[in-house]
Amino acid sequence: MSRVNQKQLKQLEVGQAYSYKNLCDMGVFDKYYNSGNSKKAQLTELSTYCEYEKAGSKYKIIQVFDKPIVLIDENINMEKNEYRENVQLLVLNRLNELEAFGYHMTESPIKICEEISLVNQNFRKTKNALHENNQYELEFIAKQYGENVTPKTLDLVINNIQRMVIPILKGALEALESEGTITFETKWKCCKFIDGKKTMCYCTKEEKDLMMNTEDKVKKELGVESKSEFVKNPKLKAEFDKKCKEVYINHGILYFYKAWDIQATKSTIESGIMRISKKITAKARKELNENIVDGVNKRLEKTCDNMTEKYKPKKVLGKNKTDRPKQTGLKGESQEPDFKDKCKDIGTKVTSRKTRKKIQRFEDIPDDEE
After folding, report:
1. Kind and range of the H or E element at 309?
2. What is residue 3's three-state secondary structure?
3. CA 240/CA 218 separation, integer angstroms
4. Which residue from 33, 62, 113, 349 has the least number of CB within 10 angstroms?
């Protein structure tokens, strides 16, 4: 079901900023939400129809697309991916290691992927070489992967990996946040010289405005409408980065980057790990159970010529409920139809489970022993 009314998108004007309430009143969104995953899903779907940027509490329209863009996370079904719970567990285990830092981390998305082992050091090394345009390092790395591998190929590989793993990580973090296990928000950081030393710090509003205005200005100079064009043209991206960096350095800033701020507590981490572990165990048991049943059926098909029905047990692994009658407690009725009659025959009123056992033992005594 679409959360965005495509017909109402014609009302949007490029360069105009709209509040979330305005977009709902215009009929762009199907329903108004104060917050939560439903609101995020609406904004995510809107990004497939137009490019926008956050301007305070409003959304400034940069470009309206002729055709909607298919998101990479939807294309490979990231919203319901089978790895989400595993990634959640990796994140919580990493936070648990940061007890000395108050179970808190603020890193770039791809750095978090590296810390929880979604990508390795080779990925980071290659990405840095591409960012610094280190041709010697790139050629050395390319030769390790094969004769036909070029730096351009490496750049495409790195971009595709990022577009796959970052949505998986984001989905896992948003799920943990919705369950109340962590707090998760996006922040901007920058690297600048303070007293002659490189220092990482959070961006002020003025520094963030400088970054956004510089990027808009350089994009216009290069005739670029969207950053998505850089994926197919690495040289254009290198030129864009170079021009932006010149402006940043004049203001004492080396570079900016987006960071995800994640905070948890010891109790929420422990309860989260326990809850997710149970889910993963149940899913693994179900999958293994299905594999065992399939294996049994394949073996039976080979050995039984006249087999007409497959073996279809409800469960092979785990504990099954027994078929014994349910005992309802004091003065309750058993599921055995003749149990009350037995009680009447011997003149005994059922008052407890212990009494029932005595009655049963009495009934089991042979006549000659009485």
Report:
1. none
2. coil
3. 7
4. 349
Helix (H, G, I), strand (E, B), or coil: what is residue 233?
coil
For tokens 């994926």, what's the residue?
A: 231
DSSP bridge pairs for 186: 260
Spatial CA neighbour of 46 closest among 16, 5, 15 = 5
54/61 Cα distance (integer angstroms): 9
| C-alpha to C-alpha distances, 135 to 7, 128, 234, nearest whole angstrom | 48, 11, 13
Residue 267 phi, psi (nearest 5):
-65, -40
Q: Which residues pair with 51 in a beta bridge?
A: 63
Characterise 275 by phi-psi region: left (phi > 0), alpha (psi -120 to 50), beta (else): alpha
Nearest 5°: the CA angle 148, 151, 152 is: 90
CA atoms of 91 and 262, how far apart (whole Å): 10
Whole-angstrom Cα distance, residue 208 to residue 94?
A: 29
DSSP single-letter state for residue 217: H
82-140 pLDDT per residue, tens: 678 889 999 999 999 999 999 999 998 988 988 998 887 778 778 777 777 777 777 77
H or E element in which residue 103 lies: none
Render pLDDT for 336-370 as a digit per residue (tens, 0 to 9): 445 455 444 444 444 555 555 555 554 554 554 44
> Coil, helix or strand for 250?
helix
Sheet strands side by side (includes 58-64): 17-19, 58-64, 50-55
Question: Which residues face 261 on adjacent strands?
Answer: 106, 185
